[in-house]
Structures are given as structure tokens and as C-alpha cells.
Amino acid sequence: MLLEILYGTALILVTTLLGLAAMPFFDRLAERATADEAVRHGPGWLILQVCFSVVWLLTLILLSCWFWSLLLVHLDLFETVDEAMYFSLVAFTTVGFGDVVLPEEWAILSGMLAINGLFMAALLTGAFVDLVRKVRSVQALMLKRRHERQAAESARPAPKDRPDD
Q: What Rg do the C-alpha atoms of the chain give, in angstroms?
């Protein structure tokens, strides 16, 4: 049991540090999610920022599951990395179908994997929500600017008709 907890704790630390190392990427995305950048690059710029972050989040989750998969294969709990990856994804996301389980003497490791998934979900959700909040505030600012421009244009007096000479 102690060995399971040690392995699980080590991998939780590694994957959490991996997630924390990704935070500067989200910070850079948030810094570039400005109204000026959106105007400069076009209307899809903000959507592209969100898409980049989704791909990055998925990459972090898959890397975390790969680390777990490699450990599970190293411990001879699975014969192939594919089987171990399937189990890791199912346990990491806390779905737990139950079609594949670890041997009873390694059952605590399953729980550690699920705990890791919960930690990473919290960490990465916070970063993603922060980016989406920034994108939404930029969208609101752009909409406000558009309304102000339209109001200024409609408030201008219409040019007087010039008499024909």
C-alpha cells in the first residue's frame, strides 16, 4: 500500500508541475486576447485563442495520462501502453467504466490516478475560465465600441443638399 501511495504521489506531483508549467502559456494567450489584437488580426482571433487553449489543455491531460500509462506498464499491470492508456484516461477522468481494473493489490493506485485527474481538472479549468473571461470582456468592449461608433455616426448631421449650378 505504501508503494502505491508513493508512486501515486510522485505522479501527482509530476503532472501538477506539468500543469503549472503551462500557466505562462495561458497568461500569454490572455495577454494577446485584446480588442486591439482582435481588430488587427480579424474576427476569428479570439476564437483562435480559445481553440489554442483547448488543444493545449487536451495535450496536458494526455501527457498526464501517458505518464500514468508508462508507470502502469512498468509495473507490469498492463501488457501494452494502449491498454494502460485506456485505463488511465478512464480513471483520470473519473468515468471508471469498470471494464478494466487493476489487480486488488494495486487498487489504491486507481484512486490516486482519479485524484490526479480531479486536481488537474481544477487547475486547468481555472486557467481556461480565466482565458474565456478575458475573451468575453474583450468581446463586450468591442461591442461597446461598435455601438459608440454607430451612435456617433447617426448623430452627425446629414450633409445638406447642394443646389445645382
A: 25
